[in-house]
Design goal:
Number of domains: 1
Largest sheet: 8 strands, mixed
Helix content: 25-40%
CATH topology: Aminopeptidase
Radius of gyration: 15 Å
Order of helices and strands: EEHHEEEHEHEE
Strand content: 25-35%
Length: 182
């Protein structure tokens, strides 16, 4: 069950360190991806207009960890230190988890999110009571679709008018739904 998950505060892969975001990360998160309209194009939130907005986002992520509502990991490159280059979140209810992710533009196309998602997929689906892991992306976001496929998720179909992506339209848009199950 999602409520029983106890994720590690830090998870390491070959190239990455996934860790809880810290208040001091806000300025770099703002500068590298949260304020970038191209990065946030397909996300459910608008680009941040100030560091204060990003500070509030980091504070919510911390509160969500404490409340076991969502686990957001800052994605860092082990060779480059502790500066976040993106983030990946685990949300859930009952027997299922879902993922969301974001990555700064200079790091696109390097397999970073695929590596992070693969790590967290393996861990979550290895937990007692978790049977389904899912993620979705806008139908036009082919890069994110490829990330999910490379991480071992399968396309289940298109959910029509499912999510509002405010940077594209005020109306709900179609999304590609991916999943991996036990």
């Amino acid at each position: 069950m999602f409520s029983d998950l106890m994720p590690a505060l830090v998870r390491d892969t070959a190239r990455l360190r996934l860790r809880r975001p810290r208040p001091e990360d806000a300025a770099i998160i703002f500068a590298t991806y949260a304020s970038d309209p191209e990065v946030t194009r397909y996300l459910a939130w608008r680009p941040h207009r100030s560091v204060r907005e990003t500070e509030a986002h980091v504070a919510r992520a911390t509160a969500d960890w404490a409340g076991k509502r969502e686990y957001v990991y800052a994605i860092t490159l082990r060779e480059e230190g502790e500066a976040p280059v993106g983030a990946i979140a685990i949300r859930g209810a009952g027997h299922a988890v879902s993922f969301g992710f974001v990555l700064s533009r200079p790091h696109w196309g390097r397999g970073i999110v695929t590596e992070a998602l693969s790590e967290l997929l393996g861990w979550t689906l290895g937990q007692r009571g978790i049977w389904r892991a899912a993620a979705f992306c806008d139908v036009d976001n082919l890069a994110s679709a490829l990330v999910m496929e490379k991480a071992g998720m399968s396309l289940e179909g298109i959910n029509r008018r499912a999510i509002v992506h405010p940077n594209l339209s005020p109306e709900p848009r179609d999304v590609r739904m991916y999943a991996r199950v036990n």
